[in-house]
Design a protein that fits this description.
This protein is α/β, with parallel strands linked by helices. The protein contains 15 helices and 13 strands. The strands form two sheets. Strands 3-2-1-4-5-6-7 form a seven-stranded parallel sheet, sandwiched between helices. A six-stranded parallel sheet has the order 10-9-8-11-12-13, with helices on both faces. α8 packs across α13 and α11 packs across α14.
Length: 391
């Protein structure tokens, strides 16, 4: 094997193209690696959110899936495996990085076996629901456990997720904690925000929520919290994203008579321009493995008000960079919001602290460098998974 301790690497990254955290982190990692001189090949079934098609070092390979009538369900995992193997042979991938266990880690492991005796290690990054939801489905538990055991390295985006992975699968191998990150130059406060006037023409407070509107996000609770706020002070709610619970939110807004105070923007790729317009960012999720949306809000100076659950306490310091609401208090989340809005000077101090924490603790460059170090260590250390050891 050619020495990989210094030379630029050729890395394959497998990810979903959606606006969720795993796809966003994968693409921004690819961009960060490219800036460090590496070549990255992205694999997905559609152009991922935030992908820059003009980046000469990041190459997108869309995976086409056959619609042959015999297939009741299109075999995306097989098409993905075949496409990655083809590119790996053509360009000489040094390593494959799978974001999300199913099907990406399994596809990467299949490619690893197909290319033997040539060694192409696999790094798997767990993002949350691949463990807390999909991985616990009896249909996928055994294959997820296999993927974790066979990957050359496994990383988790938070301590919470690592603990859940150990609890659910009983694994005894080392799990590296590599947090999500934010580009502080792209996500930053804009004062005054040109969009704020669009949302709050009368100087109202602006509350915002960004998500995929899945049930785990509990987005209808955002509407209920806003109703508490709007009953006591002028305010506007901006909902960004789309998903299965959007219709329920629209119905709730209509029932509460808030239609003129709520803006549904749908999925947006430029949330860095929207977030600076917000005073508060509401995230009442049942749990979050990390909370990338909250981190990006913090970087833009929007104070997060989120559930005290999952990995969110690792991102938000309660009372300093935002507020964490105990799950039992979520029905009264609006009262927390009103308390914050009632003290504008203190809110400004908290917004500044949120911005500072985001760009110092979760800056992009150190995290990208951490992933690069993992790649080089895996390439240099052989194929055996690392045992569980104290950090």
């Amino acid at each position: 094997m050619t020495d990989a301790s210094e030379r630029p690497l050729s890395v394959g990254i497998l990810c979903y193209p959606t606006f969720g955290g795993s796809g966003v982190v994968a693409v921004e990692l690819a961009q960060g690696l490219a800036q460090r001189g590496h070549t990255v090949h992205l694999f997905s079934y559609a152009p991922p959110a935030r992908h820059d098609p003009f980046d000469e070092r990041v190459h997108l390979h869309e995976v086409a899936v056959s619609s042959y009538p015999l297939f009741r369900y299109p075999p995306y995992d097989l098409a993905l495996t075949s496409r990655v193997a083809e590119v790996a042979e053509d360009v000489g991938l040094d390593l494959i990085h799978a974001h999300y266990a199913i099907p990406h880690a399994m596809a990467a492991l299949a490619v690893k076996d197909m290319l033997r005796p040539r060694r192409v290690p696999v790094v798997t990054t767990l993002h949350g629901t691949d463990i807390t939801v999909v991985g616990q489905d009896p249909s996928y538990t055994r294959v997820t456990r296999y993927a974790l055991a066979r990957s050359d390295r496994v990383t988790c985006v938070s301590e919470y997720l690592a603990e859940e992975t150990r609890r659910v699968f009983g694994i005894d191998r080392k799990l590296d904690i590599v947090p999500n990150f934010v580009d502080g130059e792209r996500f930053h406060p804009i004062r005054p925000s040109p969009l704020r006037g669009c949302f709050a023409r009368g100087g109202e407070s602006v509350l915002m929520h960004v998500s995929n509107f899945r049930p785990v996000k509990q987005t209808p609770l955002v509407v209920d919290a806003f109703a508490q706020v709007a009953a006591e002070r002028p305010a506007t709610l901006v909902l960004v994203g789309d998903g299965p619970d959007r219709a329920a939110c629209e119905a709730r807004v209509q029932t509460l008579g808030l239609r003129s105070h709520v803006r549904f923007l749908g999925a947006q790729s430029d949330v860095e321009n929207l977030l600076p317009a917000a005073d508060l960012f509401l995230l009442p999720s049942r749990y979050e493995s990390f909370g990338l949306a909250a981190l990006e809000a913090m970087a833009c100076g929007a104070v997060p008000l989120a559930t005290k659950a999952g990995g969110l306490p690792e991102v938000i310091e309660d009372g300093v960079t935002g507020r964490l609401v105990p799950p039992e208090d979520l029905p009264d989340m609006g009262r927390y919001a009103l308390d914050l809005l009632a003290e504008p000077e203190q809110l400004a101090v908290m917004a500044a602290a949120a911005r500072s924490a985001a760009v110092t603790r979760f800056a992009r460059e150190p995290v990208v460098a951490r992933y690069e170090a993992i790649y080089r260590d895996v390439l240099a250390s052989g194929s055996r998974p690392r045992p569980e050891t104290a950090d």
